[in-house]
Write a structure and sequence with these properties.
CATH architecture: Alpha-Beta Barrel
Radius of gyration: 20 Å
Structural class: alpha/beta
Number of strands: 12
Order of helices and strands: HEHEHEHEHHEHEHHEEEEEEHHH
Oligomer: single chain
Bound molecules: S-adenosylmethionine, iron/sulfur cluster
Helix content: 25-40%
Number of domains: 1
Strand content: 15-25%
CATH topology: TIM Barrel
Length: 344
């Protein structure tokens, strides 16, 4: 019998491990704690976004309950994201509560993806609570371009945030979206700068998620081309390092740093997929590129017991699709939800 056949009570008492229909163990959960953000990156959001009414967003207690249930079912890595996680009121309290799983040894890693604007104020506390690594999204080191790409952001704040994280002993990975018209020429400098700080870099291809105001086919830059260009002046050595995610890594011999390429459009990364995503409204997406969704908020707010909640999670995991389905050439996004809702 698989866990999906079990009644709710049995699902709890049998081995609490989430294995999907293709034999992949789900050990990594990303949780979006808010859809709001203090920036408006052009590839992520429209300039005038309508954010969700408060009542639709999970409370901090609901977020804790759901994330903790997943930890109880075998999730070893938890990434908090958004929107911008650090703009959520009470966010540090959530981190503090979730850090109990690190101390208990039931969670290996508690981490976040942030735009870094508020990191300077929180880095020391994050480190104290057991956050060892953090992803900071940064596409350019030019203040004017940063302001334009983020529609008003202040680069100095992000740089101060990165400094504070490093000073607190947190490892930083810089995530940069590769944009043909905007930062393509600057990528080598950005990589060199980050590697100089001891930070890894991951380059991301733009993904067709959600309606934004710009034409994404204009911004799309194939990382195959970026890699070829970088190889003309750097030695890129393949690394076996894998995260179960879509990134492939190389070592840049000249800088000594690690460089990842997330190419969801040109490669199939689904075979080893170990992750699922929870939106801030409690919707579980078991595949980034598909519309599949399970409403765990309705289950919780309907008064579900822990066993019933677990059964709903097992049902969703059992239906995790084999792979994604992106097409950048299409006029409309392949998936209508924004990255800021799914959490990236
Ligand atoms: N606000 C935080 C941040 O920017 O790091 C966390 C949420 S953000 C949605 C997570 C990641 O998604 C960021 O690295 C961002 O660059 C990336 N992202 C957003 N929209 C994207 C898109 N359409 N294609 C590719 N990456 C995208
Ligand atoms: Fe905000 Fe992150 Fe989206 Fe930029 S990428 S608008 S920082 S959620």
């Amino acid at each position: 019998m698989t866990p999906y056949d079990a009644s709710p009570a049995q699902a709890v008492s049998t081995t609490p491990r989430m294995i999907d229909g293709f034999g992949r163990a789900v050990t990594y959960l990303r949780v979006s704690v808010t859809d709001r953000c203090d920036l408006r990156c052009t590839y992520c959001m429209a300039e005038h976004m309508t954010f969700l009414p408060k009542a639709e967003v999970l409370t901090l207690e609901e977020l804790d309950r759901l994330a903790s249930t997943f930890v109880g079912l075998g999730v070893r890595k938890l990434r908090l994201t958004g929107g911008e996680p650090l703009v959520r009121k009470g966010f540090m309290g959530l981190v503090e509560n979730l850090s109990r799983h690190l101390r208990a040894g039931t969670l290996d890693e508690l981490t976040l993806t942030t735009n870094g604007t508020q990191l300077a104020a929180h880095a020391a506390d994050l480190a104290r609570l057991g956050v060892r690594r953090i992803n900071v999204s940064l596409d350019t080191l030019k203040p004017d371009l940063f302001r334009r790409l983020t529609r008003g952001g202040d680069l100095a704040k992000v740089l101060a945030g990165i400094d504070a994280a490093l000073a607190a002993g947190i490892r930083v990975k810089v995530n940069a979206v590769a944009l043909k018209a905007d930062n393509a020429a600057e990528l080598p400098e950005l990589i060199q700068w980050a590697h100089g700080l001891g930070a890894d870099v991951t380059l991301i291809e733009t993904m067709p998620l959600g309606e934004v105001d710009v034409d994404r086919t204009d911004q799309f830059l194939s990382l195959k081309d970026v890699r070829r260009d970088l190889s003309s002046f750097w030695t890129l050595s393949e690394l076996a390092y894998a995260t179960g995610g879509p990134a492939r890594y190389v070592k840049v011999e000249e800088t000594g740093g690690r460089l990842g390429f997330i190419t969801p459009l040109s490669h199939n990364f689904c075979e080893a997929c170990n992750r699922v995503r929870l939106t801030c409204t409690g919707t579980l997406h078991t595949c980034l590129g598909r519309e599949d969704a399970s409403d765990l908020r309705a289950v919780m707010r309907g008064g579900a017991t822990d066993a019933e909640l677990t059964a709903a999670i097992f049902r969703a995991i059992g239906a995790k699709p084999q792979g994604h389905d992106f097409h950048i050439g299409e006029a409309r996004p392949a998936v209508v939800r924004h990255m800021s809702t799914t959490g990236g």
